[in-house]
């Protein structure tokens, strides 16, 4: 049985030393610094316990993130790769040369605070921290690290989209997409929809279906079942979290069906159902840019984004039906708990319900006004 490690003072080099893992480690200089040497000895024992035979000591933060991003680019969706690359690049800038096993929650907290001071909101900072955690967890699964200390780091709370778009605001958005009619000396040989008119179609479909922006921009003609009047999306946001992956079903309203049939006749050159005036499918950047210009023109708040249309329809469904289970299926949520937050958005509807209920109770009360 090997003897337990201990410290001793090296009289020639004037250092407190110990031998762990077959290697001599210098802990503190000077005979009077024994307490500091003991503290360093405890930290070294914990490090050796963590890293085992020491084969992981040379792995740097930059090298680990490079391997993780290469794996993500090959095995994950392009959107996932872009998010991780965006979130991990600032971490490389801050700790590129650090050894991976030396990164502590304090390093991550200090880094996330720097991101917040640079102007990023809580949601963006939380997503960046999640990318760091995903990288370190992947390293443990791939046996690049035996364990890490980042399990209990604090993440900022992501902001919830609680903006409800009223009917009047939605109509203002639609009116703002009307193109200006420039007088022509000669009639146009070919009438082509403007960029604003194409975006108006997208707004109408988003309001009718409550589809996510990515589901609209990625919709293909082959995903449409005209007979059953539904979209069948094989690849969607919650597919990777389902125990049994199944496609997302989005029903078509008569308005959406008529619009898509018109586009299928006049705009079927692309495999995508919704394209811009150049014939290219929409993406998150073009949607964000177009929505920003549209809300400025319509005079609505800066908190109105394209995803607000999905929240508007979800809230109206809760208000009109009160059926959380069916609304959850319509929205493609995994659990009803996700749908329940729209009850809070429909607070005005609940107040009106309480007023009607109390009004009926007051009419049924005895005329003498006695209280029970």
Question: How would you sum up this structure, described in words?
Answer:
With 372 residues, the chain is mostly helical. It folds into three domains: 7-51, no CATH class; 61-141, DNA polymerase, domain 1 (Orthogonal Bundle); 167-178 and 193-352, Intergrase catalytic core (hpI Integrase, Chain A), CATH 1.10.443. It is built from 15 helices and six strands. The protein has helices spanning 34-51, 61-75, 78-95, 105-117, 122-141, 167-176, 195-209, 213-217, 254-266, 284-298, 308-321, 324-331, 336-339, 341-345, 347-363, and strands spanning 7-10, 15-20, 23-29, 224-225, 230-233, 248-251. The strands form two sheets. The protein has a three-stranded antiparallel sheet, with helices on one face. It has a three-stranded antiparallel sheet with strand order 4-5-6, with no helix packed on it. A hairpin with a 4-residue loop joins strand 1 (7-10) and strand 2 (15-20). Helix 6 packs across helix 10. The protein is elongated, with a radius of gyration of 30 Å. It starts with 6 loop residues before the first strand and ends in a 9-residue tail after the last helix. Residues 182-190 have low confidence and may be disordered.
